[in-house]
Structure formats: structure tokens, C-alpha cells
Amino acid sequence: MRSSRRNFLRGVGGTILALPLMESLTGAAATAPPPTLRMAHFYVPIGVVRRGFFPGEADDVIPKGNLGNVMKSLGKQDPTHRVEPLEELTPTLQPLRDLTGQLNLITGMDRTFQHGTDVHAQCASCYLSSAKAYTVEGSAWPLDRTLDHVVADQVGKSTPFRTLEFSCNSHRDNKESIYFDNISWYGTGHLAPSVRDPRKMYRRLFSSKEIGRYRDVTSLVLEDARDLQRELGKSDREKFDEYFQSIREIETQMNRLEAMRSDLAKVSFEEPPEAYLPRGDYIRLMGDLMITALQTGLTNVATFMVGPERWDTPYMFDGLFDKPRSHHQMSHNQTKMIDDLLKVDRFHMEQFAWMVQRMSKIEESDGSTLLDNTLFTYGSGLGDGSTHQYNDLPIVMAGGGGRVKTGQHIHMAEGTPLANLWLTQAQLMGLKVNEFADSTGVMNDILS
Predict the structure, then answer these.
(1) Helix (H) / strand (E) containing 39
(2) DSSP letter at 369?
(3) What is the C-alpha separation between 252 and 416, in angstroms, rounded?
(4) Which runs of E-coded beta strand occur in 144-218?
(5) How many CB atoms lie within 10 A of CB 218?
(6) What SS3 state is found at 411?
(7) DSSP H/E element including 270
(8) Exposed end of the chain (fewer CB within 10 Å): N or C?
(9) Do 375 and 402 contact (CB within 8 A), yes or no?
């Protein structure tokens, strides 16, 4: 077994498991390399209902379970720069209530809309590039090489995958163009295609050859694993067992969803069968795959798109509605569907919070956590899904402990470009850059 950051278990059939960093495999803890800083982006389509997300735009802080009609708009947020402790949370942010010390709420950041194209087309496709408007040749919108690939140019050289792109769009229709369903781009007109099928991502991560349908990865590498366990100390054996159990759970969940998909395909619905898959289970399965890839060093950079922009394809939001609903259609009828939209926003935040919580419980070799060593950002390309505004974007940045100040609500001055955050993250990831896209400077408020 090679003692380095890249440790693998290999079973018959070309099956591979990459292991987390373990002290027993790297020598004494004092000689173990420091954990690598990673970056991941969790993208939510179609913006949010402002009254549920932004502090100061609702009557008061509403406890969980009461998303009723007591909310009202109080108008545009304060245009001045201010930083205050992140203490009280609005209804949409309530799922983060136990995590406030590990994140920053960032409001007031803007993007420039380039007129002449569909408002939704720029939301996702230009979110991580934020190029200066009207400066990119050969493009109808400001789409350039996105932040994940700019960062991966430096930090992705030693990992099996420079970047990984995840999408939770389970539908197979092609109603909209690729610009509505992707946030990662190698450059203008050059898409970094996302993987939507959990099984395809699983095989991409863990198999160099096709795995037999009924032979899961962990079964194929157990013999190698038993030999390895004899080399591990007590704490590493516990970490090893926990890791293997998480892989088992991923496999079990995939098999369950695949069986459900097969059964649904036999029934006649108005909507496609994919609309009836449990939405939360699907997102968390993809989330588990992303977290495992970051944990084991298969990649240091990942993007995670929770759904497509504008598509009218319906989803079965777990426990919210009795039939599949279209997020986009609801967003254009906000007056009548305000309560339903607030539930969807909170549902998405619950998935992000679950992933943050998972990362906070994964211990690295030096006692820090995966979350401490990951810049994990929730965001959307719109500030409001109903009005299609490109200013006051909803951003939550979790992780980066020790490198990033946390527990703050940072409201940026009016007109501050989103690219300032991307520039700051690029520098935190080790890039020697002084500008990114239309940035005007770094965000010193989050730097330790």
C-alpha cells in the first residue's frame, strides 16, 4: 500500500476505492501533509423569494413550520456596507440555525445583465464567470471560463479529476438549451458537461471497468480492505469503517432509486416518470457522491446544480406537495403561490444545510474537518425569481475555518460585483491573481 495522499483499494473487475487520508498510511501525524483546501459551489435556480431569505425584508423571524401569510416586503435593502453577527435567521435560512458559526451570509452583491438575450440564459451559465458585459467576443452574453476551471488550473493538477460537475436534473427532455442547465464552462461556447445520473457518477469515480449489476464496489474490494485494516491504528480503523459504511449507504440508495425509477416507467403519467422520484433523496445521493469525491482527494473542485433554470419540468418535492410541481411556473405566479415558493426555497436550503452538516462531521488527518478545508458556497444567479433582478443575490458561504472569518452577515455596498467574492475565493485557493472578471477588489470582511 503506497503511503501518500492518494491511497486506493482495488478489487477484481477494475473496481477502485480512493481512501481518505489516514495517519497510519502516512507515517506519524507530525509528518502527515496538511489537508488540502477544496472549493465547491451549490447552485439554486430561479432565485429566491426575497421576503423569506433576506434579513429586514420580512415582519420578523418566523420559527420553523410557520411559513404563513405574516410576511410582507419592506422594500430594497440598505445600500451601505455593513457587517454584523449572524444571529437571527429568516425562515428560508432556518435550516442553518445550528451552523451559523461556520458560515457567512453575504448579501448586496450584484451581477451585470447583458441585454439582448433571455434573462434566464445568463443566470446559470454566467454565474461563475461574471465576465464584463459586452466584452466577450462570439457570445451573446458575458460567458467566459468559469471560476471552478480557473482555480482547477492550479489546484487540480494532482487529482484524478481536475473538476467534477454534478447536476440534479433527473429529466431527459431537451426543451431548453445547454445554457439553462449548466454552470461550469471551459470557456465561451465550451461546456463542461455535468453528470445527472448517480450511477454514472458512481462508476466514473470508483470503476475503471464496468461493474456487474449485482456486485457492489465494497464487496469487490473487501479482501484488500481486510489486509489493509491490520495496518491501521484504532482511530483510522474507525474512520475506515465509517467510510466504508457511507459507500454502502450510497449503493443502497442508488439501488432503491433505480428500482423506483423502473417501477414508475411502467405507469402512465402526465409528467415523465422522473418527476415522481423523491427529490430530497436524489439530491442527497448526488451530494454524498460529491462529498466522498472531495473527502478522498479524487477532486479539489466541484460544482453542484440543484436544478435547471426556467424549465417547466415538474419535480416531486418530498413532503411539500401531493403531486409534481414546476418551480419555474410557480415563480411567475408568486402572488398566489408565495407559501409554496417559500417551502421550495426552504427545501433547497435544507439540502445545502444537510451537506454542510455532513462535511462538518468528516474528520481529516490533523483533527480538522472536511468543512474546515472546503469553501462551500450556496448561491443563485437571480436575486428574485419573480422580478428577474440581477442585484442583491442570495449567497451563503460555509467552511474555510481558520482561513475565513465566519458567523457574520456581510452586506456589501450597492453595486459590489459578485466577482469580488470569486476573486477572494481564488486567492484563498492559492491563485496569485489581482482581478477576476469584473471584480473591483477582494472581500476583506471574510479574510482571517
Answers:
(1) strand 38-43
(2) B
(3) 45
(4) 164-167, 185-187, 190-191
(5) 19
(6) strand
(7) none
(8) C
(9) no
d(CA 342, CA 96): 15
CA distance 376 to 103: 9
Q: What CATH number has the domain spanning 39-219+260-446?
A: 3.40.720
What are the residues whose beta carbons fall under 8 Å from the beta carbon of 115, sequence distance 6 or more? none
**Cα–chain center distance at 125:** 15
d(CA 146, CA 127): 8
Q: Residue 359 and residue 351: Cα distance in Å, rounded?
A: 13
Q: Which of 284, 297, 308 is nearest to 198 (CA)?
A: 284
What is the distance between the alpha carbons of residues 112 and 254, in angstroms, rounded to a whole number?
Answer: 40
Distance CA 448, CA 97 (A): 23
The one-character DSSP state at 427 is H
pLDDT in tens, 213-269: 445 566 655 555 666 666 666 666 777 777 777 888 888 888 888 898 888 888 877
**Cα separation, 122 vs 142, whole angstroms:** 8
Q: How far is CA 372 from CA 38, 101, 176, 362, 403, in A?
A: 9, 12, 37, 10, 9
Q: Report CA-CA distances (Å) from 315 to 44, 167, 278.
A: 14, 14, 8
Instruction: Report in angstroms the alpha-carbon separations of 291 from 123, 129, 137, 294.
Output: 25, 24, 36, 5
Q: Give per-residue pLDDT as tens, 69-106.
A: 333 333 455 788 999 999 989 999 999 999 999 999 99
pTM above 0.90, yes or no: no
Burial of 87 (0-12, 13-18, 19+ CB in 10 A): exposed
Three-class SS state of 17: strand
- Residue closest to 48 by CA, chosen among 416, 389, 411: 389
User: Tell me: the pLDDT tens digits for 109-126?
Assistant: 998 888 877 788 888 899
Residue 420 and residue 448: Cα distance in Å, rounded? 16
What is the C-alpha to C-alpha distance for residues 200 and 10, in angstroms, rounded to an integer?
Answer: 19
Residue 314, classed as helix, strand or coil, is coil
Tracing cell 466504508 back to the chain, one arrives at 244
Query: What single-letter amino acid sits at 209?
Result: K
Q: How far apart are CA 311 and CA 181, in angstroms?
A: 9
